[in-house]
Design a protein that fits this description.
The structure is a homodimer. The first copy, chain A, is an alpha/beta fold and about 325 residues long. Chain A has a 6-stranded parallel β-sheet, with helices on both faces. Chain A has a 4-stranded parallel β-sheet with strand order 7-6-8-9, sandwiched between helices. In chain A, strands 10-12 form a two-stranded antiparallel ribbon. In chain A, helix 5 links the parallel strand 1 and strand 2. In chain A, helix 1 crosses helix 3, helix 5 packs parallel to helix 13 and helix 6 packs parallel to helix 7. Chain A starts with a helix and ends with a strand. In chain A, about 50% of the residues are buried. The model of chain A has no long low-confidence stretch (mean pLDDT about 90). Chains A and B meet through helix 4, helix 5, strand 2, helix 11 and helix 12 of A and helix 4, helix 5, strand 2, helix 11 and helix 12 of B. The structure holds a DNA duplex (30 and 30 nucleotides).
DNA sequence: TATCATTGTGTAAGCGATTTCAATGACAGG
DNA sequence: CCTGTCATTGAAATCGCTTACACAATGATA
């Protein structure tokens, strides 16, 4: 492995000069030229490990996600990756498989070492999370949840759910049911349910508390909850779900119980999943700019790290949403 | 930041002793105890950067994927992450967005530095790829393609496609069309098409070359190709696709042209996408153990890196498949 | 008793970069 | 001619850890 010293010797300069050449310090034109050639000749590339040890910066960003195989998360990740790549950083990905404790574990692992900053795609935010975030040694940005005192990029789930509920109330005749997710997930659980309920209520068609179920983000959980709903309350004519994935499950349940194709006009979701859109022609749902949230969060983080002038700094950013097919 | 020397002083030993304690070298019981307490007291954690510089190993594995937001890739990634986490490694993720040149770029970037090994989720494998792989400084494992002379974990796409074609030939009456992908993707392009054709032929119902189209992995491309097929050859009664995603597009096209619900029994795919399965009740498709391939590839790689005895070594591993809904 | 593994320990030499520091030469102003 | 800037330069000191080496003990073996 050719190192800086070799390049320096070949170019007839000190290794300090080579370092300066590489980092844009004082260097005369002719030496710069000689160094440039020596580098090309030797194929030298500098050791990021040595550099990291000396400078304390690894150009690595830790990204913690709850589950890699979900459309929303992978879109967010795509956005994060875009910005990172463009700005010379790399992504250290940690998949927690929906286990909140592994999230904390990674938060620890990351700040204890190699990363310059962290992007946390958050679901549940416990007090422990808040504490860990507050005491984090490196800058951190949250995506998906609004946490006081932390930098976050999120969507207004309450408002979106309100609008959806309000719009649906007028178009659905018959009983509406709701399949939510754990309220520990403030955004997808609490906010969406509350917003939806408020929207229905405002439209004069309040949600019957007996028709609320809880799934676990998966398609199967949406299916089970819907089956149960349909057997307990056969007069339910519409099932709103907290995620498109669960809506797909509910849709299947309705199809099974009431005949193929029936479900399509009787469920709604959140997230505007591409598959669902194509296969159903589009159920009522909320479109969020997931890729954008990845991009924005990461830009914010890197601006802080790189000390970009006129930087946006670590702050809170609420992104818009869009009702689909209502 | 408390460093090893601080711990050593507090424990009244040399830093070499602390290092030995941490790495399992010779150390007496009482010193070990003192060191343990000193570490707890100070909250010391060792600098992975210094360690990396000294040992030359980063405990980082580079993972190159063509596209993060696809079910197959994210399942593979989940498998990779599982093994990595369990064995004390971390994942450096590079998303190439389906650009083969960025793949080479990352291959370069990675081996030039911080990673101990590479997992490449391959699509197109050009000669440049082969060269880059062969000259790779760190161990590398490919997933999804079979490349001579490189370690790979892959599926037998030809055989699977053959079986699918053979099975479908008997069940479909009327003309069968095929929507493939670029043949530069040997597995998903070339092998699947050839296998499918051979399967149909073997069943005495050969594929009409005029009914072959090419998509680009996306849902929309499947949709367009199917629309075009249906208008050019209205008597086509079944459209086989090289991926479930394109099948979803084709399904939508058929629904539009022939009425909702019609498509479901008239398309087939590859990959056994969960959404598609739920929403259609299951089209003929091939199930691959994507998660398993991530697990196997990574285990193989880490075994080599860690010098596990009885190691499996870097070799070639062909995983099985399963026909679904035929 | 002499000899030799075996264990335990500290000293010090790196790993390969960045960066401080002092030194140099050139050049403008007084 | 002297002095003060200013751009350039290399020597050398880190960054925090691992490990080769030398050297002690200690117990086992001949």
């Amino acid at each position: 492995m050719v190192k800086m010293k070799d390049v320096a010797e070949l170019a007839g300069v000190s290794s300090a000069a080579v370092s300066r050449y590489l980092n844009g310090g004082y260097i005369s034109a002719d030496k710069a030229e000689r160094i440039k050639q020596a580098i090309e000749l030797t194929g030298y590339v500098r050791s990021s490990q040595a550099r990291a040890l000396r400078t304390g910066s690894t150009k690595l960003i830790g990204v913690i996600v709850p589950k890699i195989n979900s459309e929303s998360v992978s879109r967010i990740t795509a956005g994060i990756g875009q910005v990172l790549g463009r700005r010379g950083y790399q992504m250290l990905l940690a998949n927690t498989d929906n286990a909140a404790d592994r999230e904390l574990e990674y938060l620890d692992l990351f700040q204890n070492h190699p990363v310059d900053g962290i992007v946390l795609v958050a679901t549940m935010v416990t007090d422990e999370h808040r504490a860990a975030i507050a005491s984090c040694r490196v800058p951190i940005v949250l995506i998906g949840q609004h946490v006081e005192g932390a930098a976050c990029v999120y969507h207004d789930d309450y408002e979106a759910a309100f609008e959806l509920g309000h719009a649906l109330a007028g178009r659905v005749d018959g009983k509406i049911a709701y399949i939510g997710v754990t309220e520990e997930d403030r955004a997808a659980g609490y906010d969406r349910r509350r917003g939806f309920e408020a929207g229905l209520r405002a439209a004069g068609n309040p949600l019957d508390a007996a028709l609320i179920r809880r799934g676990s983000f998966t398609l199967d959980s949406g299916y089970s909850a819907a089956r149960e709903l349909l057997s307990v309350a056969p007069d339910v004519s519409f099932i709103a779900c907290a995620t498109d994935t669960m809506a797909a499950g509910a849709l299947r349940a309705i199809d099974e119980v009431r005949g193929m194709g029936e479900g399509i006009h009787r469920v709604s979701g959140f997230g505007d999943n591409a598959f669902l859109r194509a296969l159903t022609g589009g159920i009522p749902t909320v479109h969020y700019g997931y890729l954008t949230s990845g991009v924005e969060a990461t830009s914010m983080l890197l601006d802080t790290l790189d000390g970009v002038e006129g930087e946006r700094g670590l702050k809170t950013l609420k992104l818009g949403h869009q009702l689909m097919n209502v």
